[in-house]
Amino acid sequence: MALRTLTTTSRILPSATYTVTQKHLNPATCATPIDLADSQRGILDSALRVDQAGEIAANYIYKGQIAVLGRDKHVGPLIQDMWEQEKKHLIVMDRLQVQHNVRPTILTEVAKVAGFGLGAVTAMMGKEAAMACTEAVETVIGEHYDDQLKDLESFPSKHPSLSLLKGVIREFRDDELEHLDIAVDNFSQRAPAHALLSSVVGGGCKIAIELCKRI
């Protein structure tokens, strides 16, 4: 099985502003825009609510996969690396949710259970099925992040938190698309009933996104 590891970079990433100790208050990380129209505030709130829930689910998907495939010398370390990246994503999304005063979804516990179940079940179906799960999820998430960026670009506010948020979303989108590439490189498309599995997982993700936007 091909083993592709996550790439590393020396450049300072937007998310780093939320994961390092700051010596002064930065409005980009400590304040939220007050000049948004109600419709724009609704878009911002639903985006961060969905993103936080998505990162919770992603963490539990990888937790479920590790529970089954953690000892596999080929995909175990690969899954663990992707999980570590998702852990960082969740830390940042939690802080964004507090910064922008966004109510978390009431489906948080459902996201945990469903995520773990999806990860564990696909892992029990085999390595390729676990990778197919990642491929399907990250395809939907990449498209979702692109849609969010389009929405945020239409906001007239020049508040520094919005520029930083767009940078974080671009960064996380690229991370998720890298996970997708890793899954394909590791034979996700050889999974039994790949097309059906991708359709079910991807469709479930889209339904979850719409639910978390609202509740």
From TrEMBL:
EC number(s) recorded for this UniProt protein: 1.14.99.60
Subcellular location per the Swiss-Prot or TrEMBL entry: Mitochondrion inner membrane
Record pathway: Cofactor biosynthesis; ubiquinone biosynthesis
Keywords: Iron, Membrane, Metal-binding, Mitochondrion, Mitochondrion inner membrane, Monooxygenase, Oxidoreductase, Ubiquinone biosynthesis
Residues that coordinate or bind Fe cation 1: E55, E86, H89, E176
InterPro entries given in the database record: Ferritin-like_SF (IPR009078), Ubq_synth_Coq7 (IPR011566)
Molecular function as annotated in GO: 3-demethoxyubiquinol 3-hydroxylase activity; metal ion binding; oxidoreductase activity, acting on paired donors, with incorporation or reduction of molecular oxygen, NAD(P)H as one donor, and incorporation of one atom of oxygen
Top EC class for this record: oxidoreductase
KW Mitochondrion (keyword) present: yes
UniProt cofactor note: Binds 2 iron ions per subunit.
Record-level GO cellular component terms: extrinsic component of mitochondrial inner membrane
Xref: CDD domains: DMQH
The protein's required cofactors: Fe cation
Domain of life: Eukaryota
Reactions performed catalytically: a 5-methoxy-2-methyl-3-(all-trans-polyprenyl)benzene-1,4-diol + AH2 + O2 = a 3-demethylubiquinol + A + H2O
Keyword GTP-binding: no
Membrane topology classification: Peripheral membrane protein
Residue numbers binding Fe cation 2: E86, E138, E176, H179
Pfam families: COQ7
GO biological process: ubiquinone biosynthetic process
Function of the protein: Catalyzes the hydroxylation of 2-polyprenyl-3-methyl-6-methoxy-1,4-benzoquinol (DMQH2) during ubiquinone biosynthesis. Has also a structural role in the COQ enzyme complex, stabilizing other COQ polypeptides.
Quaternary structure (record): Component of a multi-subunit COQ enzyme complex, composed of at least COQ3, COQ4, COQ5, COQ6, COQ7 and COQ9.
Family: Belongs to the COQ7 family.
HAMAP family in the cross-refs: COQ7
Record-given protein name: 5-demethoxyubiquinone hydroxylase, mitochondrial
Species in which this protein is naturally found: Gymnopilus dilepis
Gene behind the chain: COQ7
